[in-house]
Amino acid sequence: MTRLFGPWPVRVDEGQFYIAPDGNCTEVPEKRMERALDHAYKNAGLIGSCKDIACVLAGINCGTILLSVFQTDADPGPDPALWDETEETGLTSSTGDFRYTALMGNTGEDPQEPYETNLAHAGPGKYRLRLRARGRDINPDGVQDDEPIAEHYLLQVWPQRTT
Length: 163
Prior knowledge:
- The chain is mainly beta and 163 residues long.
- The chain is 8% helix and 42% strand.
- Strands 1, 5, 6, 8, 9 and 10 form a 6-stranded mixed β-sheet that branches. The protein has a 4-stranded antiparallel β-sheet with strand order 3-4-2-7.
């Protein structure tokens, strides 16, 4: 199975967005959110994770970025596009459901995408997340409300095989 979604305009608040069960980071214990955020800072400053949640650090402070998601059953390998940064992390999904979510809650502007797309396509278990980014240095700590959107992300998701 291989599927590509997006790019979607997604909301960034306080320089971050999350991948959480049912697309709702408010249901995740605060200590887990803090651990995912700490891991993101330690993990090259792009993405970090903890059980059931991943935190992505954007270049902007608030506004909109573009996110594409590539789901596959195995490591997709190199991407031919030019990316400024790439970082990988693991994510364990105990519920078999994780979705993009804004820190301050989803706006509901487009309720079908990306909030309704379950990224845990193989059900509960361990996943690898590889995030590729470009444009994070264009407007650091700024606000992105106008077109064109400067920051672009590709999130590659696949089940982690245990040996």
